[in-house]
Amino acid sequence: MHAYRSYATAVLPDIIFSLPDIPFTPPPYSQKRITKSIERSLCYLLDILKPVEINNVLYRLNVFVQMVGGIKETARSAFATTLLGELEPNEKEQTLLNNLDAGISGYVFDLVPLRQSLRAETDPTDSPTPIYRPTFTKSLPSLLKASLQSLPSDKPRIVNTTLSPHEILMLIKDIGIDVFDSFWAQQAASWGIALDFIFPAPSFRTSPSQTGKRQIGHNLYDSKFSNDFNRLSDDFLDGLSYSKQKQSSSSKEATDVCSCSACSPIWSNKPLCHSVAEMPDTHSEPELAPPYTRAYIHHLLHTHEMSAHSLLVTHNITILDAFLRNIRNFLEREPDELSLSEEIRRFEETYDSELQILDTARASWVSVDLARGKGRLAREREAAKQAENVAIQSTVDECL
Asked: Which own/partner pairs from 254-257 qualify as long-range (CB within 8 Å, at least 24 positions apart)?
C-alpha cells in the first residue's frame, strides 16, 4: 500500500485508482471475507487521499475509488454510505477532508469479479459458459445502483470489462455510466473478428444469422471470406469511397466513415528524409489508398501475420469509438429516456446479444493456432483418420 502511494507521489498521474481488496480465491465468499474486503479498501483509500506536499504546496491526487462489496447489495450500499460518513478527528487531520467522498473524483466498477461471484452463486460447479460471453447482464444494474444510490451524480462513473455493445447501452440507460474500456473489442480482434455495428441501428437488415439477427462483426477466420474483397464494415464507408462520394454532386447522403488504418489507409508519396537538407521544396498531401479487404486479412490470420491483429485492433477500436460518439450525439439531440429506450430496443432486435460469433471465432483461432504448432502432423493424421472412419460408417449405414 505504501509502495503504491510512493509511486503515485513520484509520477503524479492525472488519474489514479485506489487499490481495492478483491479476493483472488474462487467465489463464493463469506460475509466475514466481504466485510474484511470493505475495511481494507477503505484503509487503502484513506491512505491515497492524503495530500502530497510539493515545494511546500499541498497537491491532491485525482482519485477514482473502486466500488467493492461483491454481489451483496447491502454490502455495496454500506461501502458507499461509509464514503459519506464523517471521518475521525485524526483521519481529518491526515486527509484535510470531512469525509472520504469529498476527496474522490469518480467511481469505478470492475465487472469480472461480479460475474464470477454470480456464476458461483448460480452454479457452484464449473459452469460451461465461457467467461468471454456476456453473462448475468440483467443482474448487474441492481448491484451498481446499490453502490451509487447514496452518492452524488455529478462525478464520473467508469466501468471496466463490459463484453458487448448491448451491455454498454444498458449501463448507460439504467446506471448513467460515463466511460467504458475497450477490452472486449481488442479481445475480438485477437480472435479475428472485425466489428461491424452502428448506433442507431440501421433500418435495413443484411446478413442475418440463424436467429434472424445480425452478428456484431465478421469472423474473418471463416473460409467464406477467402475471396471476399469487400471492406471490413457494411455500415461504414472506407476513406477512399467517402472521398469519391463527397466529390460527386449527385450524392448528398450523410454517411459514417471508418477512419482506421485498415479501412482508410494512407499512401505517402514523399521520400523518407533523414535530415532537413533532404526535405523536398514542395508540400504534397498524402493520398487515401483502397481499404484492406476481408480476404486479405483472412489470409494474414491463417499465416499468423502480426499485422492482422494490428489492423483489426485499430478497426475495432474505431468502430467502438464511433458507437460511443453516436450515443453522445443522440443524447444531445433527444435527451429523453423514452427515445433512448426505443433506440436500444431497435438495436437489440437488429444485433445478436448472445454473441455466438465469439464461440465460432475462438474455435477457429484455436484450430489455426494449433495447425502451425508442435505436433501438427500427428494431429492432422488423427483428424484424417477420424474423417475416414466417419465416411466409412456413413457408407455402411447407407448400404444397410
From this structure: 256/198, 256/322, 256/326
- Cell of residue 11, nine digits: 509520477
202 within 8 A of 344, measured Cβ to Cβ: no
Say how many CA atoms lie within 13 Å of 83 toward its Cβ.
Answer: 29
β-strand partners of 33 = none
Q: What is the pTM of this model?
A: 0.84
* Residue 98 DSSP SS3: coil
Would you give per-residue pLDDT tens digits along the chain (400 residues)? 678 988 988 899 999 999 999 888 888 889 999 999 999 999 999 999 999 888 888 889 999 999 999 999 999 999 999 999 999 999 999 999 999 999 999 999 999 999 989 888 876 665 555 556 667 788 899 999 999 999 999 999 999 999 999 999 999 999 999 999 999 999 999 999 999 999 999 876 555 555 578 999 999 999 899 999 999 999 999 988 888 887 775 555 557 899 999 999 988 777 777 887 777 766 667 788 999 999 999 999 988 899 999 999 999 999 999 999 999 999 998 878 788 999 999 999 999 988 889 889 998 888 887 776 566 567 667 877 888 888 888 777 777 6
Q: Is 145 helix (H, G, I), strand (E, B) or coil?
A: helix
Measuring CA to CA, which residue among 147, 83, 152, 84 is closest to residue 111? 147
Which residue from 358, 356, 314, 331 is spatially nearest to 169, judged by alpha carbons?
331
* Nearest residue to 84 (alpha-carbon basis) of 155, 163, 5, 17: 155
d(C-alpha 299, C-alpha 108), whole Å: 40
Tell me how long the chain is.
Answer: 400
Q: How many CB atoms lie within 10 A of CB 106?
A: 16
Query: How does DSSP assign 348-372, residue by residue?
Result: HHHB-SS-HHHHHHHHHHHHHHHHT
Q: Give the other-Cβ count within 10 Å of 98's Cβ.
A: 14
Omega before residue 202 within 30° of 0, cis: no
Q: List the end-to-end C-alpha distance of the chain, in Å, as a whole number.
A: 73
Amino acid letter, residue 9: T
How buried is 95 (Cβ within 10 angstroms: 0-12 exposed, 13-18 middle, 19+ buried)?
Answer: buried
3-state secondary structure 18-54: CCCCCCCCCCCCCHHHHHHHHHHHHHHHHHHCCCEEE
The amino acid at residue 219 is N
Cis check: omega of the bond before 200, within 30 degrees of 0: yes
The owner of cell 462483426 is 217
